[in-house]
Amino acid sequence: MSQPGRFDAERYEVATAHGDILLVSALSAEEGAQLGRLFAGIDPWAAYGYPASVMANFLSSFEPGAPRLRLSVGGTTAGAAVIRPGWLRGPYMQFLALVPGMQGRGLGSALLSFIESEARAGKERNLWVAASEINGGAIRLYERHGFKRVATLDELAWDGRAEILFRKRLT
What we know:
CATH architecture: 3-Layer(aba) Sandwich
Largest sheet: 8 strands, mixed
Order of helices and strands: EEHHHEEEHEHEE
Shape: globular
Structural class: alpha+beta
CATH superfamily: Gcn5-related N-acetyltransferase (GNAT)
């Protein structure tokens, strides 16, 4: 990595608690579009009615300072993440999704541990994530990793529903 906390290396290898190696690398536009269409069909995005084209565009686009990351295990695509380094004195994981069949294997936990170690190496103060109130699995994951609820954002993404902002203090 060229600078701590920037998430700009070509690839990272992260060990999971189950003995797998999670490979974190750049997400290609083509694979981002494919994953976007897939993720639009699963909750919480399906419940919110996100169009597949919008999700595909989000994951396939290039945005300086917000790398789109491919998550894979053994050469198989496991999911995608989007990180915004330097958001309120620490990285914000804007997006994390795992393809069906790859959940429950410790990949989300491994990614969170990796992001935390990068943030600590960069002397960051915080880690940030948000989750839909209907995404119980994500909420449990973040709370298990020491994230605390700091705000409820009513009707941010969808009328009648709330997003929960989580923070993990590093200092």
